[in-house]
């Protein structure tokens, strides 16, 4: 149930992280150039932003209830450790809700620059809200900020120390870049589909180029951040790294296997420690009952890396063409790839979270609390799962209906005189 809810909610988080910045950038282009087309696109996108935020409220509320209902012992024992982060996430949510309302309904009521500034808190709140949740997840992978007494009770709680853990920084940057890629490629893919159907007007060009540029700038940087993340995991969670690579025995100069086909001698040691002779901890370092399911973790990791590499290649083609030839690529295959890039980026995102969460198993709080200790013992879970799936299917149908209805409306392009 929690995995289903996260899979539904995470794409909405990506749009909360990245999409407001794209909307503001488009409005900023209007203010800089005076071109009413940019304002019309930003205005339409702001309505999409509002729809997705509203659905995110529902899915986020379900997740918050699930924490208490599905993981009662976890919440009872550790809530005071990470409660501060969730409280600040709630503050970010309210700020975002207030300013989204002001922004969407203030298009024709606020001066142009004041309206643009009203969107800035939406961008900031979307990022700080996700930062708080990522901080809690980082703490689950590297718990600190508390002590346990002889009876196992939590004492000497320091919420700030819990939040500032070794995982929070790379997880945050990794998630922000992933959010930009998912939102950027999905939005660009919508207009690339229209481009393939012969809609080559300025509207489709501008609405495709802005999110595609955002995503393509993020894609190559994500590879560098992935290296940072791998080194942190090697230090803090060596068993997770062993599961990622299927490394059974602790090895000096461990090889790196790519796709189960290509083997790079000493590659894993070089990647994790920047030393080809470094010792990499294998699965044999922990008992069998403390090892994560290797097949799931390894498959998810290879899926994430494979898609991420393909998206970086797509980004390189786009950026090189735009910089050196100062035009869009002309091949239809490029636009087909852009259409596919959005769903693929989402698959890579979910695969990455599978690596993060399943790779920590059997622990919910790494080496402190097992999943079996934290999970509810209540019955009726299958009924709840089916009900939840039906709710999410209903939400998806509503979103699809609203977005299609919005897309069919004529673009509200105003002349400069009408805008004044």
TrEMBL record:
Keywords: Cell membrane, Electron transport, Heme, Iron, Membrane, Metal-binding, Transmembrane, Transmembrane helix, Transport. One of its GO terms (molecular function) is metal ion binding. InterPro entries: Cyt-d_ubiquinol_oxidase_su_1 (IPR002585). GO terms for cellular component: cytochrome complex; plasma membrane. It is found in: Cell membrane. Pfam families: Cyt_bd_oxida_I. It is a multi-pass membrane protein. It comes from the Bacteria. The chain crosses the membrane at residues 6-27, 48-71, 83-104, 116-140, 173-194, 206-225, 300-321, 333-355, 375-403. The keyword Metal-binding applies. One of its GO terms (biological process) is aerobic electron transport chain. PANTHER family: CYTOCHROME BD MENAQUINOL OXIDASE SUBUNIT I-RELATED, CYTOCHROME D UBIQUINOL OXIDASE. Belongs to the cytochrome ubiquinol oxidase subunit 1 family. This is Cytochrome ubiquinol oxidase subunit I. It comes from Phytoactinopolyspora halotolerans.
């Amino acid at each position: 149930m929690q995995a289903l809810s996260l899979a539904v909610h995470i794409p909405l988080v990506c749009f909360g992280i990245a999409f407001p910045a794209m909307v503001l950038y488009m409005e900023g282009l209007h203010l800089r150039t005076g071109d009413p087309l940019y304002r019309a696109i930003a205005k339409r996108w702001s309505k999409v932003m509002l729809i997705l935020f509203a659905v995110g409220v529902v899915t986020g509320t379900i997740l918050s209830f699930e924490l208490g209902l599905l993981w009662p012992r976890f919440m009872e024992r550790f809530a005071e450790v990470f409660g501060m982060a969730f409280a600040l996430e709630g503050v970010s949510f309210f700020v975002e809700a207030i300013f989204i309302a002001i922004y969407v309904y203030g298009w024709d009521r606020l001066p142009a620059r004041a309206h643009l500034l009203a969107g800035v808190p939406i961008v900031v709140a979307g990022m700080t809200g996700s930062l708080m949740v990522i901080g809690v997840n980082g703490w689950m992978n590297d718990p600190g900020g508390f002590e346990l007494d002889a009876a196992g009770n939590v004492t000497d709680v320091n919420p700030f120390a819990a939040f500032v853990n070794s995982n929070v920084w790379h997880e945050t940057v990794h998630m922000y870049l992933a959010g930009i890629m998912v939102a950027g490629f999905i939005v660009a893919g919508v207009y690339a589909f229209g481009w393939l159907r012969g809609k080559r007007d300025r509207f489709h060009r501008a609405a495709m180029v802005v999110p595609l540029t955002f995503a393509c700038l993020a894609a190559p940087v994500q590879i560098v951040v992935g290296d940072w993340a791998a080194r942190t995991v090697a230090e803090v969670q060596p068993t997770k790294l062993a599961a990622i690579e299927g490394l059974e025995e602790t090895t000096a100069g461990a090889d790196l296997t790519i796709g189960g086909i290509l083997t790079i001698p000493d590659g894993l040691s070089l990647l994790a420690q920047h030393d080809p002779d470094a010792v990499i901890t294998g699965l044999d370092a922990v008992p069998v009952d403390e090892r994560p399911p290797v097949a799931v973790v390894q498959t998810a990791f290879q899926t994430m890396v494979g898609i991420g590499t393909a998206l970086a290649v797509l980004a390189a083609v786009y950026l090189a063409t735009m910089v050196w030839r100062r035009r869009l690529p002309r091949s239809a295959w490029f636009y087909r790839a852009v259409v596919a890039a959005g769903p693929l980026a989402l698959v890579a995102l979910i695969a990455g979270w599978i690596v993060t969460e399943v790779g920590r198993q059997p622990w919910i709080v790494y080496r402190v609390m097992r999943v079996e200790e934290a999970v509810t013992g209540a019955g009726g879970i299958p009924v709840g799962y089916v009900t939840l799936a039906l709710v999410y299917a209903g939400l998806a149908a509503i979103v699809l209906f609203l977005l299609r209805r919005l897309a069919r409306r004529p673009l509200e392009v105003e002349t400069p005189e009408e805008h004044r």
